[in-house]
Amino acid sequence: MEQYVIKGGLPLVGEVEIGGAKNAALAILAAAIMTDETVTIDNLPNVRDTNVLLDAIAGIGAKVDRVDSHTVKINGSYIDCLCVDYESMKKIRASYYLLGALLGKYKQAEVALPGGCNIGSRPMDLHIKGFKALGAKVEIKGGAVSAKAEHLEGTHIYLDKVSVGATINILMAAAMADGKTTIENAAKEPHVVDVANFLNSMGANIRGAGTDVIRITGVEKLHKAEYSIIPDQIEAGTFMFAAAATHGDVLVKNVIPKHLEATTAKLLEAGCRIEEFDDAVHVVAQGSLENTQVTTLPYPGFPTDMQPQMAVVLGIAHGTSTVTESIFENRFKYVDELTRMGADIKVESNIAIINGVQQYTGARVSAPDLRAGAALVIAGLAAEGITVIDDIHFIERGYEEFPAKLREIGAQIEKVATEKEIQKFTLKVS
Ligand code: UD1
């Protein structure tokens, strides 16, 4: 079982380069199969989730050619199976984007239902509502959703709840439907815009992505494209919070500062100094950290994927802070782990009440999920002493070369596989 071992207490200082957005990549890789021509995707993050999805895409017969670690060519003309099995779905929920992509292109698809996940229940009712509205017959049978249509017909869809997944899935199917579709109360996340831009570069006609009304005029065919994925706002935010928690000074490069506004606003309230450049943000956290209140909301609100990392910063800020989670019901699993590192946090319903402590102390903890795992890394970097993090496979789902990037800005962190390696690291840093 691999682990991260961290010797904390040093400020992070220097420059870090952010990779492509994992969540945009997952939808874009699925959408790439919608043409029979070859699509080249660049700035692809080389993380477990994208690699698992590429395997699922190859598994349905598409040709997947990895040009280098951040570039892939996909050709969907070889697809010979319109179903995605439970094994792929279990490994990565975002395989459900293949439902919208296959339904749009072939008017037929079946994917296993994903079931719950570590951050809470993840229903697909809105995705299904959208496919039905487009004229597909949707059935849930044997643990799978199957959707089929003679042809898809453009329509008006109102999403009762803002959902990134449903917006993107419906967008993909509607891109190849007959006539015009309007999605109201659509998600406005940067990766929704990136998927729409990608589909447009393949010949789709999508307007309004990034607002809450998206208008799609269906086209019969999509064509080849070359596309570069946007920078990962969550990876960027994670490094910004790591800089804050360690009282560091970090230039986070290759970002779109506009996508980071909610994160920046909260770090300013917490007492950090932030400078924005065209494609970089500079975080300086030399003074004391201050308490604040945070509520997660759909974009442009504060991202739920950044909530655990923010809580780690507030855990060592002056005074009492609150963090309210309004998107997923089970996103405070890291609190017990953080408590083992000395945090003083109480969770009441969907609110974490955080009484700042002076400093965390190193401990052995487990990553409960991807972002909570990243948050524990930040806590380890800020802590006095040695922290060992188990279950790092969750973290590797979404962070490329995390220890190496952190070491470049002065962190003492290693990936280890044995107790002996932990001891070796401890001796080296003591
Ligand atoms: C995406 C992101 C995830 C992020 C989340 C919220 C990807 C691969 N994942 O997840 O990292 O945390 O957005 O920004 O991009 N809901 C329903 N019915 C549905 C669909 C969703 O009730 O059919 C609810 C969910 O339970 C949740 C809320 O809507 O409470 C938002 O979920 P959604 O935006 O769909 O999240 P994902 O797309 O799964």
Topology at a glance:
Elements: E1 3-7, E2 13-17, H1 22-31, E3 38-42, H2 48-59, E4 63-68, E5 71-75, E6 83-84, H3 86-91, H4 97-106, E7 108-112, H5 125-133, E8 137-141, E9 144-148, E10 156-158, H6 164-175, E11 180-184, H7 190-201, E12 205-207, E13 213-217, E14 225-228, H8 233-245, E15 249-253, H9 261-269, E16 273-276, E17 280-284, E18 293-295, H10 307-314, E19 320-324, H11 334-340, E20 344-348, E21 351-355, E22 364-366, H12 370-382, E23 386-390, H13 393-396, H14 402-408, E24 412-416, H15 419-429
Parallel strand pairs: 2-15, 3-14, 6-7, 10-11, 18-19, 22-23
Antiparallel strand pairs: 1-23, 1-24, 3-5, 4-5, 7-9, 8-9, 11-13, 12-13, 15-17, 16-17, 19-21, 20-21
Helix pairs in contact: 1-2, 1-4, 1-7, 4-6, 5-6, 6-7, 8-10, 8-12, 10-12
The structure holds uridine-diphosphate-N-acetylglucosamine.
Short description:
The chain has helices at residues 22-31, 48-59, 86-91, 97-106, 125-133, 164-175, 190-201, 233-245, 261-269, 307-314, 334-340, 370-382, 393-396, 402-408, 419-429; strands at residues 3-7, 13-17, 38-42, 63-68, 71-75, 83-84, 108-112, 137-141, 144-148, 156-158, 180-184, 205-207, 213-217, 225-228, 249-253, 273-276, 280-284, 293-295, 320-324, 344-348, 351-355, 364-366, 386-390, 412-416. With 430 residues, it is an alpha/beta fold. The structure holds uridine-diphosphate-N-acetylglucosamine (UD1).
